[in-house]
Specification:
This protein is an alpha/beta fold. It has a single domain, classed as Flavin prenyltransferase-like (Rossmann fold), CATH 3.40.50. The chain is built from 8 helices and 6 strands; from the N terminus they run αβαβααββααβαβα. A 6-stranded parallel β-sheet has the order 3-2-1-4-5-6, with helices on both faces. α2 links the parallel β1 and β2. α5 packs across α6 and α5 packs across α7.
């Protein structure tokens, strides 16, 4: 291994899809920026809509948070190939449609193709799946991708942090996602036993 490879920045592929919770993806991009991780962003068409509807960001401002941005239809992008090395991928939030595409190996857009590459190369793939309630189809797809090596991470709030804002909950969720990549945001409270009065 050359010195440059040994010292290279961590590289993570971030995909944002059209499930509710666009703010989770945005907060994650900001956290990775603070951690000096190189980000490769893909956004679905419906992600652009939820970003506009749910947040104060325009999709172009979200794209500006990433180091590299790819069009969802660009199957020739570097991250479409296993030969392009990355440290993993996180889909946040991940719709049931994109989950289904990954579960079936469809690869019909760059998000499901890049995820398919992560699984075949045995790299880390985290799916922040968001839907409720869950049907048999959703549960079956989650089990199948989990058995193929993905981590299913629904953004379930941790009430033990006694959140005083949505931002507290988002930071805690994003912090726990990044724990999976051995990255510590330092922006949320960890459980350290019952608090003494
Ligand atoms: C405001 C809004 C919220 C949505 N929330 C969810 C959701 O939480 N989970 C989900 O699976 N789909 C949700 N959808 C539907 C997806 O956007 C839709 O299935 C879309 O085809 C997903 O495509 P994508 O994965 O390529 O973004 C939502 C749609 C809208 C407009
Ligand atoms: C949430 O995290 C961001 C950094 O990602 C930080 O700037 C902000 O202060 C945090 N918010 C809270 C409420 O801790």
């Amino acid at each position: 291994m050359s010195a440059s490879q040994g010292n290279r920045r961590k590289q993570i592929v971030v995909a944002i899809t059209g499930a509710t919770g666009a703010t989770l993806g945005i907060n994650l991009l900001i956290a990775l920026r603070h951690l000096n991780v190189e980000t490769h962003l893909i956004m679905s068409k419906w992600a652009e809509s939820t970003i506009k509807y749910e947040t104060d960001y325009h999709p172009s401002n979200v794209k500006a948070l990433a180091d590299h941005v790819y069009n969802i239809n660009d199957m020739a992008a570097p991250i479409s190939s296993g030969s392009f090395h990355t440290d993993g991928m996180i889909i946040v939030p991940c719709s049931m449609k994109t989950l289904a595409a990954i579960s079936s190996g469809l690869c019909n857009d760059l998000i499901s193709r890049a995820a398919d590459v992560m699984l075949k190369e045995r790299r880390k793939l985290v799916l922040v799946t968001r839907e409720t309630p869950l049907s048999d189809i959703h549960l079956r797809n989650m089990l199948s991708v989990s058995r193929s090596g993905a981590i299913i991470f629904p953004p379930v709030p941790a009430f033990y942090i006694k959140p005083s804002s949505v931002e507290d909950l988002v930071n805690q969720s994003v912090g726990r996602m990044l724990d999976l990549f051995n990255l510590d945001t330092g922006t949320f409270e960890r459980w350290s036993g019952w608090e003494k009065d």
